[in-house]
Structures are given as C-alpha cells and as structure tokens.
Amino acid sequence: MSEVWQAFKKRENGVRVTCLLCDKSYSNPGSNTTNLWNHLKGKHKSNDLNEDNDLITTPSFSNSDSLNSFSHFSQQSSSSSTSANIVQETSCIKQIKMSQFIINKATKIKMDNALAYFIATSMMPYSLVEKKGFQTFVRALNPSYKLPSRKTSNLSSACLGCIELSEDHTGDNIADILHMLLLDYEIPEWKICSMTTDHGSNMIKAVNNMNISHVDCFGHVLNIAVSRILKMEEVMTVIEKVKGIHNIFAHSWKSVREIGIIQVKFGLPPVPQKPGVQSVRRTRASRLAYIWGAPLVPA
Questions:
Q1: Same-domain pairing of 218 and 176
Q2: What's the chain's average pLDDT?
Q3: Residue 114 lies in a domain
Q4: How many angstroms separate the CA atoms of 213 and 229, rounded?
Q5: Residue, of 264 and 62, whose pLDDT is higher
Q6: How many domains are there within the chain?
Q7: Which residue range is the domain that position 111 belongs to?
Q8: Residue 187 shares a structural domain with residue 210
Q9: Where in the cell is the protein located (predicted)?
Q10: Residue 298: inside a domain, yes or no?
C-alpha cells in the first residue's frame, strides 16, 4: 500500500479522498495516486514534508475529526520516518574501492605476516593453507591474495643462551632466569606466543609465572604415557610371557633350528635369531624405539 494513504482517507465508498492535513477533497475513483502526491508536494512541502518528501508528524488541523484521524497516522508516519532514516544512513555507506583488493608487495607481506600470526597463536598446522575450505574462505575475502604454499613457510631455530642454574631448580628460579634472558635480547613477553617444555611441574610453574601459554613437549608426554602403560599389570604380564618365549630361542640353538624348519614349512620368511639376551636400560629414546619396532641399542 502506498505511503500517500497515511495522509489521505477515502470517503463516499472510495470515490473521493480527503487530505488529513488540510481537509481538501479530491476525486479518486481508481488506484492512481499521482494527483495525491502532487497535492502533498505543492500544498504541504514547506510545513509537512521533509527534504526527502517524506511525511513528518507536525501538521496543523482544522477540526477535531482530522485530529482524531491523524493521531493514528502520526504513529505510522514516525515509524516510516525512522525506517527512511535507516535506509538513508545505509545508502551513505561508501562503496568499497577496487583498489583495496589490489595486492602490492607491501600488502602481500603484511597479509602473510597476519596469516603467520594466526597460525602461530591459534596453534594451527601449516597444512591449513592447503585445505580447500580455508582457500575458499580467503578467496571470498580477497580474490587477489595468493596464499603462501606450505613449503615457503620456513621454520628456523636459534639458541639464545645456555645458562647454569646453581640454585634449586624451582619454578620461581627458572622463571627469573628466563626473564633475564629475554631482557638481554630485548624481547617483550607479548611477542612470545608460547613456550614448550617438558611436563615437569617446575617448568610448568615457571612458564605460568611469566603469563605465557605453555605447550607440553609431545615426546615427553608420549614417554610418560608409554612408561605408565608398561607398568600396567595386564601389560607387564604379557611382557613377561614374551620375554620367556624370547629367552627360549635366545639360549637354545636347537630351538632356533626347529623354529626355522617350521617357518620354511609354512612359507614364512626366516627370522634371524641372535643368541643371548642383552640388558637394555629404557631411556626415553629407546622406549619409544621399542614401541615403534625399531632396533634397540644397549645402554
């Protein structure tokens, strides 16, 4: 329905209309509203219309009927004016220039650094740049930006210091040493995304004292997990049985010869057997090698 009917009311079965602002009557048997708009622009432009020809809510009235009829119109007009202002403000938003999507060398470096910061602080893998979903998201943001390949992301490491800690290796003492090291290199703590240490309680406390995100060393956590698994009663039972079987073939050449005959009979590849059982001290590396099936080196 046209907004012009907020200022006009149909009378005489819709054949005539009356202006609610000045009580002027017009013939309007159809649905054409051009003459009604012309009336508003010509008669009420200065007093009852704003700069955009929208109706405002401060008209004068000639009789009580018009006042009562316009009370409802004023509420609708106020809502319409608010909507018009919102549309007007939205239309004033500047259009994005195409130059903002053009990537020069400086912009490329800036965006690459932002991507590296996102990957580092969010602990994302470098393979993220190869994910189709992430590539689609970046193209939607800026089609001109070309993601760096995973191979161009060079990782590097450097030793900042090797400091002897003669005092007790408490979390507070370790944190003090780390603070001094950062001060020597003038590295602010806000530039450090995280610190990786073993799972020792003193190391965790030292990093927490510095208000820096802590990341456990995966190798140390895995070693702890494997150590605890090997100490489980169910696993220890199996290990003892395996050791007993191994000792049979390690100390008896006759048993080695017999199992070799059986392997050939069933078409199995011969497994070389070494006599003698060597005592191996399970270090962190040897324990992991034991789990992954790598050969063990006696300590």
A1: yes
A2: 75
A3: yes
A4: 28
A5: 264
A6: 4
A7: 103-141
A8: yes
A9: Nucleus
A10: no
Contact by Cβ (8 Å): 108, 142: no
| pTM as predicted | 0.39
CB 56 within 8 A of CB 20: no
Quickly count: other Cβ atoms within 10 Å of residue 44's Cβ: 19
Is residue 230 within 8 Å of residue 198, measured between CB atoms? no
Residue 276 has pLDDT above 50, yes or no: no
Task: Please report the pLDDT score of residue 202 as a whole number.
Answer: 93
Q: List 26's β-bridge partners, or say none.
A: 17
Strands 16-19 and 25-27: antiparallel
Domain-located, residue 78: no
The confidence score (pLDDT) of residue 254 equals 86
The closest alpha carbon to 99, from 144, 141, 154, 33, belongs to 144
Residue-wise pLDDT for 156-198, tens only, equals: 788 888 888 888 999 999 999 998 898 999 988 888 888 999 9
Angstrom distance (rounded) from CA 248 to CA 34: 108
Q: Is the pLDDT of residue 32 over 80?
A: no
Q: Which two tokens stand for residue 278?
A: 């060597």
Amino acid 169 reads H
**197 within 8 A of 204, measured Cβ to Cβ:** yes
